[in-house]
């Protein structure tokens, strides 16, 4: 069984090796086999693919997908920014 650190490193390597994903803004945390993927990607496809890759690793019990999709050239707005603009 892989340690959490080994799982994180393997997942990071797989995401870096996947040409259809831009992993520059993806962060992976692993705690007792539970993988949290957060940050942002440029498309829904990339989001789904990143989660799919994480789910297929031995030793992964659950994947929590907190990735945001940010279209190139767009800015993500937090709830606070949106509320202030209203």
Protein described:
- This protein has 86 residues and is of the alpha+beta class.
- It has one domain (4-85): 2-Layer Sandwich (Histidine-containing Protein, Chain: A).
- The protein is 38% helix and 26% strand.
- It is elongated, with a radius of gyration of 14 Å.
- The model has no long low-confidence stretch (mean pLDDT 85).
Overall, the morphology is: elongated
Share in helix: 25-40%
CATH topology call:
Histidine-containing Protein, Chain: A
Number of E-state strands: 3
User: Which value, in Å, is the CA radius of gyration?
Assistant: 14 Å
The overall average pLDDT, rounded, is 85
Q: What assembly state would you assign to the polypeptide chains in this entry?
A: single chain
Question: Which sequence of SSEs, written as H and E, runs from N to C?
Answer: HEEHEH
C-alpha termini separation: 51 Å
What is the name of the CATH architecture?
2-Layer Sandwich
Task: Name its key features.
86 residues; Histidine-containing Protein, Chain: A; single chain; 3 strands; 3 helices
Topology:
Elements: H1 4-17, E1 26-31, E2 34-41, H2 44-55, E3 62-69, H3 79-85
Parallel strand pairs: 2-3
Antiparallel strand pairs: 1-2
């Amino acid at each position: 069984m892989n340690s959490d650190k080994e799982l994180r490193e393997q997942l990071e390597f797989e995401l870096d090796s996947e040409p259809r994903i831009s992993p520059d803004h993806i962060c992976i945390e692993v705690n007792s086999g539970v993988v949290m993927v957060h940050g942002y990607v440029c498309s829904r496809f990339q989001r789904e693919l990143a989660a799919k890759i994480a789910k297929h690793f031995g030793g992964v019990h659950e994947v929590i997908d907190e990735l945001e999709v940010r279209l190139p050239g767009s800015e993500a707005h937090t709830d606070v920014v949106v509320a202030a603009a209203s």
